[in-house]
Input
Amino acid sequence: MLLLSSEFLQDFVDLIRERYPDLLRATGQHLILSAVALALGVLVAVPIGMLLAHHPVKWARSGVFGVANIFQTIPSLALLALLIPLFGIGTTPAILALFLYSLMPILRNTYTGFRSVDPAILESARGMGYGAAQRLMRIQFPLAFPYIMSGIRVTTVYIISWATLATLIGAGGLGQLIVSGIGVNKEELVVAGAAAAIILALLADGLLGGIERRVARRAHPKAASK
Amino acid sequence: MQKKKRKFGVAWIGLAALLPLALTACGGSKGDTLTIGTQTYTEPKILAEMYKALIEDKTGLKVKIKPDLAASKVVIDAMKKGDIQMATLYSGEIYNGYFDIPDTKDRAEVLKAAQEGFDKNYGFKWYDSYGFENTYAFAVRQDVADQYQLKTVSDLKDHAKDLKLGVDTTWLERDNDGYKAFQQAYGFSFGQTFPMEISLVYKAAGDRKVDAVLAYTTDPGIKQYNLVTLEDDKHFFPPYDASPVIRKDMLEKHPELNDIISELIGKIDAKTMGELNYQVDVEQRSPDEVAVEYLKQNGLLD
Output
């Protein structure tokens, strides 16, 4: 395996040592693309998921899911290309494409989370005089939270991975190392770019997992301390 | 009911066992098929379609085209492995570290070095050129050229740090004719660099997302977006004459290919190639349509 030859390892070590500013810059670009797209995705998909969970109009749900599904199934490179005539090249279409990808998983998980709340609990809460806002913040949100977080964590890993294509439309990121590495046949670049993306995804997932545990502990102090 | 279940079970296992066989059969009989590989841009695709039309017309071979290989290096690797047998390559490729090369930038010597080197090391026959070169050239928007009075690359020196440069996906990493070597040769850098799929740089310049681009000289985008090419006064970029290249073992198995391939040698100049590229990239015609039309118009195909 070429990957484990001593020549490759030497090139790889040299790369990290000599070009870590480039690596850091690419990682930073990648992080911004992913984080902004994810934040927008959460801001849009979570409220919509909440609203759809108990929406009286049935076709609203299938309509919204249908649209989100279409964005999800368009091949990533195609989606990037389709956005170019409208938004040009660079970070804007890249973030927009990643945002559209993030919608479906977050939307579906939020929807499922809110639907999973036992209506009996809500009824008794209503009976006890809880207003809509209180029901939302004290009961629905805490119970739906694990689902929502699961959707966000999965989406985060997807987005960090797909953001590697952004380089093809001039948005930079870790994809730049991978694509240029392929073009000049320098495997160490490809591996460095891929490794950084993997590390980024693991760190993000770990961070979100930590947030998830913290919120769970605050919502259910007794249960969490078991 | 049990009997039916068992029959179904056997049927599924049979099918599953046949599947790998079917997949290997898809590998195809290499003897009767010639695969031409191309890079991601239009030019080699048109040339591949020309050869496909000629070879299928004049021999019993079937030609498959494998497009969009990431870079010339990937094309060469594929040819080394035998996944493809033929391609269009550019003489300046010798600077990408395949074998030792003479220290020269003379067009004829670079071509000779390519022909000898790739024959000796990989068993490729590298023909003489189609008649044109497709090399790198810096280009700027007309208004940028006017604003800074730019005619040569050296004219950029005092202004480059204020300029945004669009380049293809590999130039920043290339060792011998890439950005690093350029900075040493010309002694300046650009403010910001944006690597992207090469076909997008021209529109990026037109849309003012970048001010300068490192163009490929036969790309129609230069004309399409009213860009002005700057003279490489320090002769930094090596020559990139385009030639058909084929594996010698394929040629030995089918010697009739030699005459067919030679039909296009020395026939296509840069202006013509640029126009053909224009018809595909700008007029949105398909490469095979443009290729066949060209062959018919020039009496190479009836």
Remarks:
- Chain A has a mean pLDDT of 89.
